[in-house]
Amino acid sequence: MRRQKQWPLRPLLAYSFCSSAAERVSNSTAAAATVAFPLKHVTRSNFEKTLNDLRALVKAADFVAIDLEMTGVTSAPWRDSLEFDRYDVRYLKVKDSAEKFAVVQFGVCPFRWDARTQSFVSHPQNFFVFPRQELTFDPPAHEFLCQTTSMDFLAKYQFDFNTCIHEGISYLSRRQEEEASKRLETLYREEGIDSSGETEDLKLVRLADVLFAERMKNMLNEWRTGLLNGGNVSSESPRISNESTRSTETVFHQMRPALSLKGFTSHQLRVINSVLGKHFGDLVYIHSNDKSSCSQDFVVYTESESDKENLMKEAKDERKRVGERKIQSAIGFRQVIDLLASEKKLIVGHNCFLDIAHVYSKFVGPLPSTAEKFVASINSHFPYIVDTKILLNVNPMLHQRMKKSSTSLSSAFSSLCPQIEFSSRSSDSHLQQRVKIDVEVDNFRCSNWNAGGKHEAGYDAFMTGCIFAQACNHLGFDFTQHSQSDNLAHNEKLEKYINRLYLSWTRGDIIDLRTGHSNADNWRVSKFKYENIVLIWNFPRKLKAREIKECICKAFGSVSVISVYHIDDSAVFLLFKNSELVWDFLKLKRQLESSDGPVSVLHPLSKILEGGNTGAADYEAYKEICSSHISEILFSDQAETVGVKSRTRPDPQDETDRREESTVAVTHKSSDLIDAFLANRVEVETATTN
Amino acid sequence: MQRRFLSSICATAGNSKTLNQGRWSVKQVKKSNFHVTLDKIRASIDSSDFIALSLQNTGSYAAAWHRVSAIDTPQTSYLKAKYAAERYQILQFALCPFSLQGSKLTVHPYNFHLFPRDELKCGMPSYSFSCQASRLTSMAREGFDFNTCIYEGISYLSRAQESASKFLSGNPILADPIAVSSSSPATVADTVFVGRIRSRVKNWRKSCVESSIKTGDDDLVSSLRRLVLGSEQYGSRLCLTIDVCSERQVQLILEMLTEFSEDVVPLLIASKSRGTQAVRTVFMSSKEDKDLFKRELQDLENKENRRVRGFREVIDLISSSQKPIISQNYLSDLTSIHAKFLGPLPANVDDFSSSLSSAFPNVVDLSQFMKEISPLSNISNLPAAMSSLNRFFAPVDVEVANQGSPVKLSESYQSHGQNAVMISQLFAKLRTIQKSDLSTEDFQALASDEHESSITSCSKNAGDENVKVWSKNSRRVSSENLVFIWGLAKKMTAANLKNALQKSHPVFAQEFDVKYLDKSCAIVVFWESGPSETFLSAVNNEEQLCGSLREMVAEGLRAAGYETYKKACRLGFWEADLAESLDKTLESSDTDPDTDSNPSEIDWSNDLAINFYEL
Asked: InterPro entries of this UniProt entry (chain B) (predicted)?
């Protein structure tokens, strides 16, 4: 599951380390021979402005490349992509990763074809993101996981954690926003009920309170009488107390005469409120938050009962408005995602299934429980996604052009776009084939730079976009003929690559995000007969795969086991020849465990069962274990915690149901699989139920 | 005892207005200056009488009910602290060895920046850790430098991890002589295997002996011979590598090699994944050579260990000094220290106490100490706690003894680690107050007698301290008299809920109390034993269920006793809502008897330490 990305260590030139700068356009290193890569860094201080600019850029763009940096990838070693992961298990692992880790940087790079200069103009933006809790009435304690190796990796590329945590833009997912609004609504409704009862609750027990209440009563009475009799509401304070810390002043609140209270403690204010409730029917206590979020307290004079109600309602509505504004501003970075979704632009990523899963879980809502539900849902948010890694591996022509070099982001970039990486436009013999790409940041356009930038999400998004533009060019896409009305996403040359992502790159599994497509089920092909797999954990730690295989072969015959595969030190997968052997094994294991006789000691399996803690279960248990939100480091601990300990053979009825359900097609080499898949000629054969 | 007074800032403690940040200059220790500072730290610890410490973690509790509260027994408090200690990471470790003479407090403050670095690429010291976003934000507000911490933090391995990492460093290790003793009966295959290896070792040894006699050869001839014989060298010594496929074979080879123990030393070569990959036999030219070789290996191992141990070296220094440790948050600090630097936390609090006391025999829980002197003070806010002691006359002069340069206020990072100094200061103040009460002249005697007793009382009640709520209305309640209720159809205040319950069942005619533990679950406290059982059986019994209680149950009300809560903690169902956890516990089939099934007492107070506006 580790993303196949490697960045060559480029010499860092005059890297100025600045931790708190809100906006750092790194083209300031003028002393260098060429300009450093212009990349716009966005934090919460310049977010609003950038967002406004970005709206126009995205609207005009032909496609938008994205890239994410996270705090980790796998929450436990066994959560990595394994040989025996079925597509549904694989999805569960990606889901776990997206739910547990945080996104710390989000690169967005809109690309627009400029017919005038015959080149693409890109606008790389690097957003620092941090899940800061902005709303006080939000659910408690948002938590995320950090994988130590990932943090080290980020540190190696001089990721600025201070900027991220101090200045990162926060966000709310759509679901979170709905929930926050709902909570605000409830608070708003409850307020009316509580305010009547609350004042009576306060009993003045302490002598100090009684005296204070009496003093306040006199003061308020004096003020009220003065107000009614004199009629001349002087702005001069009727009672400036000797102590400078506390003051009352006559002001106007919502067109009504009011006494502004300053320097009182919240307890004193409660006492004042209770005094008002008991003795003054026409005076109302109002607590308000003004725009600069500093709170003010007033005692307001109302002329009648209806006027009083109006005032209370106004105050309540005002509080609600403040709450709504807070929610609006807490949405933060999600506005960028909403922008991408609403413009329905082609989204370009590199090996981006995990990225998309993160986008979904952070900005839309909790990830659906199954891959099928995810596919059904993602389309309505992001209708067009293209993965450059798919493009480079699946298209035979591009695959050949890559000359067998790795399709990791950086090496794909250097083999497809050397002119951009090395700024060597003139000497390139294939110049005709190269797409020209300019970078524009803050109206500063530049076509020549030193690419020795450090690795950041914004730069990675830029590289991804360049690869895509170049790949389109190789596919025979003529940008010069291309007009603004054409949508790249609808181009027939790209059609068969769009909305297909690698569910697992190492295994070559592809997920098809198109809904209602006739072959939408084809991505769920499987390499193995999963019903032939048994999971064993907590066997004696010193046993190696080969020894386990020997034990099993002694008990079930030399050809019974096809392979043994380590999940981690504490667990293995056993691939049996057929599913009967799975149940035989589980049955035998239980028999041996229940008997204490000499048979259980001398039996070949006793070596595996030694210690008495060995657990075994079928493949469905593995799925159950992966779906748990717990992540123990060792698989055996995980299995025990999730509690599939006693599970052996399910009911026969249950078992047949499951088998009928599972449709398994077998193709062996991953490249075959991809070709076959794209040509829609994967043979789907039902697993023979023996 | 020699002390360096290069800088000293004296201030009379207790004046809270001077208690601003950055008052003392604290030595900041990172990866780069860790090894050079280590000797100074050792000297500081040696010259001090007490060690104050304070930790900065990436989080404290994930949900409201995960916080240790008044309803917790020592065991549940411990389980809560354990859960947090295992999830969160220590980013800063402030250490302040200090000594107290009269009213003079001499402190040696250090602040270590820690970051777990997976240097051996094996998921140690930690594979991943949790962060609370709000905690990181508030750390940021205090000026915490995350870049320094992550780029330059000192890594470490716990004691348990260090012994596990021996095999992972890739260095050959001396075969453990103890492992050579026992053996199961040999099979035919074993005999054949041993015979084959024996003849191979014999031949090799013979050639070694021969080559060591022929010393007249020049380099070319000897290297040619080596080439022809196919022998390898380990350093300057000749060796033979025997590949093995199982630990059983390792065992057999080691047993066989005892025949050659005079001049052959076996080394184990660990494989990358697990277990032993090969046995390497090294030829020794003489007895002296053998001793030298073993010493070399030992040195190599020690060096390697020191490298991987990292910050734990400091923990070992503290532990071996046996000096009393002063901690503000006893349970959370010491579970964290145990989990990160000693080994995995045991499942119950008694094992934890005994495991901890083997490493740190004297730990003073400052909050406990504080309560003895000033029962109403809140320890969680150090400056406030300090000023609450103002009514006592207890001047304390602070002298910083380990800093080379005076405080530069511009360097804000110098301010990290102030807490440990404040803890030592608070401790000094409390000691002075305690001393004046006793009017004992001999301070040292006090330190040895009186103090030990307060320590033992602390360690005896390990984890127990949070159960007590010091309030005038506090009452002791048996945990049997508590009932958890959740699944209420509509949101109710505690008062409304109490009213509703009063109408629902005759058992509520007696005096009882209701409090919310989090937004999903409330607790009902009966003052006498008996009604809780009656109520629980009424809720779970079809026939007894009638009236408005039946209505409430039909709307989703559920109830459970304290056992269920304890089980939820024990099984680790740390859901965000307590109601979820209790539901899951009731569903779980696990029926393991609880080790700690005796009803325990808790202190109930009207003024429970849970503030619902904070939730």
From this structure: CAF1_poly(A)_ribonucleases, RNase_CAF1, RNaseH-like_sf, RNaseH_sf
The answer to whether residue A647 neighbours chain B at the CB level (below 8 Å) is: no
The minimal CB distance from A132 to the residues B133, B146, B275 is found for B133
Buried b / exposed e along B570-603 (16+ C-beta atoms within 10 A): bbebbbbbbbbbbbebeeeeeeeeeeeeeebebb
- For chain B, the distance separating the N- and C-terminal CA atoms, rounded to the nearest angstrom, is 51
Is the Cβ of A132 closer than 8 Å to some Cβ of chain B? yes
Are A283 and A299 contacting, i.e. CB atoms less than 8 angstroms apart? yes
Distance CA B371, CA B381 (A): 14
CB A92 within 8 A of CB A136: no
Q: Report which of residues B563 and B305 the model is more confident about.
A: B563
Residue A72 has its nearest CB partner, among B128, B150, B275, at: B128
Question: HSE on the CB side for A360, CA within 13 Å?
Answer: 27
Eight-state DSSP code of residue A45 = T
> What's the ipTM?
0.74
Residue A403 zone, left/alpha/beta (φ > 0; ψ -120 to 50; rest)? left
**Angstrom distance (rounded) from CA A640 to CA A649:** 17
- By C-alpha distance, the chain B residue nearest A544 is B246
Q: How remote is the C-alpha of B491 from its chain's centroid?
A: 39
Distance, in Å, from the CA atom of B359 to the CA atom of B352, rounded to the nearest integer, reads 11
Mean model confidence pLDDT for chain A: 74
pLDDT digits 0-9 by tens, B295-353 = 888 888 777 777 778 888 899 889 888 888 888 888 889 999 999 888 888 888 888 88
Nearest CA-CA partner of B462 in B20, B180, B78: B78
The torsion defined by the Cα of A56, A57, A58 and A61, in degrees rounded to 10, comes to 120
Q: Helix axis angle, B547-554 relative to B494-504, nearest 10°?
A: 130
Burial class of residue B222, CB neighbours in 10 A (0-12, 13-18, 19+):
middle
Burial of A249 (0-12, 13-18, 19+ CB in 10 A): middle
**What is d(CA A620, CA A609) in angstroms, rounded to the nearest whole number?**
21
What does DSSP assign to residue A475?
T
